[in-house]
Amino acid sequence: MHNVWILVQREYLERVRSKSFMIFTLLMPALMAGSVIIPAKLAEMKSGGARRIVIVAGNPEIAIAVEQQLLETESTPGATSQADQQATESYAVAISTTPTEAERNDLLQQVTDGKIDGFLWLTDEAVAQHKVTYLTRDAADFRGNRELRSAVTAALAKHRLAEKGMSGPEVEALLTPITLDAVHIEKGKEGVSGAAVFATAVAMVMLLYLVVLIYGVAVMRSVIEEKSSRIMEVLLSSVTAKELLAGKILGVGAVGLTQILIWIIFAVAFAVSGMMAAKSFVSEIHIPTAGVIFFGVFFVLGYFLYSAMYAAIGSMVTTDQEAQQMQWPAMVPIILAVFLMNPVIQQPNSQLAFWLSIIPFFAPLLMLVRVLVEEPPVWQLALCLGLMLATIYGLLSLASRIYRVGILMYGKRPTLPELRRWLRYTG
């Protein structure tokens, strides 16, 4: 045990003192903060003034209705946040009631010359077919195009309802959208919104996925580096292969926990700093106590499970190129678990979610999702943890046997028959 502790200290201090650790530890919070602040700031910025458009319609009443709707859109009555309000376009609208080919060609030239940003072609035929054309140089501005489509749809609906004899207030009441707020029930009481549950689950699972994958690969690379430099031969004169494997996995895992702790400190400081751009995002994050506890549990178990696989892969190869070709058995399960998150989030108590979440290679991510969305029964958690522990024990035993022979083997990658011989040698 004393030798293992020495190896843990060596692995831990070697990585924590490295420049790459310091850079990545500081870079990740900066990237996360930037992903929240920069889009919010960009949404607040105007795109260089009002959008200049011309509404071409054979029916002047329809053109006026669309113009009024666009001007009303600037106040964004349906906006769900301050960012949505600030991101709304402003418009400078002109109306043309001569939808002729000559007018179309003239407007096309004005768009080309930059005199206007675009024009809506609202002929009677286009309205009857429910297919309106917006001609512009910025056809890829999906948010602006969505606003225009919504404005035209609302304006035409109001116009048609008014023709049927409905008054203005009646039309507005009829077309006002209903706001639906899905609220999560926790232990018989109203909890946070569904958006908060979803945001929390995705954020924590992606953090877990990232850290487990990064430090599993770190274990593999560490084995490859020490094999290539023949340090292994020196270390094995003082410790056993099993102690070396245990020290490497525990040391690198401690580095991962340290990095997570630093990121949590940054996240807390970021959340309480009162940054206006981050308020809407931070308000969507809700981490229950059980989520924090099981995040730590599944990080440790998931890390041991995948690092054992990566250590075995590292002991079988001698170069990074060979490692990249061999690491697919470790990468495929955890990547597949990320793709399976969505059905588990939507129906956390379904049979599909249950069976997926107790598969040991999926459990670190998918069972954590279930805990965050709707805590599963205790027996399911116990079954999941039991299966994970048994799998980890089996993988560590298998990895240690491959590791014991593989770290001293150089040359080409072993074939499956050669791997079986390695296992028999250490059986």
How would you describe this protein?
This protein has about 425 residues and is α/β, with parallel strands linked by helices. It folds into two domains: about 50-175, D-Maltodextrin-Binding Protein, domain 2, CATH 3.40.190; about 185-425, no CATH class. The chain is built from 20 helices and six strands. The chain has helices at about 1-15, 20-45, 60-75, 80-85, 100-115, 125-130, 140-165, 170-175, 195-230, 230-235, 240-270, 275-280, 290-315, 320-325, 330-340, 340-345, 350-355, 365-375, 380-405, 415-425, and strands at about 50-55, 90-95, 120, 135, 185, 190-195. Strand 5 and strand 6 (about 190-195) form a beta hairpin. Helix 3 (about 60-75) crosses helix 7. The longest helix has about 35 residues, at about 195-230. Residues about 75-85 and about 275-280 have low confidence and may be disordered.
SSE map:
Blueprint: H1 2-16, H2 19-44, E1 51-57, H3 60-73, H4 82-87, E2 91-96, H5 101-113, E3 118-122, H6 124-128, E4 133-136, H7 142-163, H8 168-175, E5 183-186, E6 189-193, H9 194-228, H10 231-235, H11 241-272, H12 276-282, H13 289-316, H14 320-326, H15 328-339, H16 341-346, H17 351-357, H18 363-373, H19 378-406, H20 416-425
Parallel strand pairs: 1-2, 1-3
Antiparallel strand pairs: 3-4, 5-6
Number of E-type strands: 6
Q: Which sheet architecture does the biggest sheet show?
A: 4 strands, mixed
* General shape: elongated
Helix content: 55-70%
Strand order of the largest sheet: 2-1-3-4
Report the C-alpha radius of gyration, rounded.
Answer: 30 Å
Main structural class: alpha/beta
SSE order: HHEHHEHEHEHHEEHHHHHHHHHHHH
Quickly count the domains.
2
SS field, number of helical segments: 20
Mean pLDDT: 76
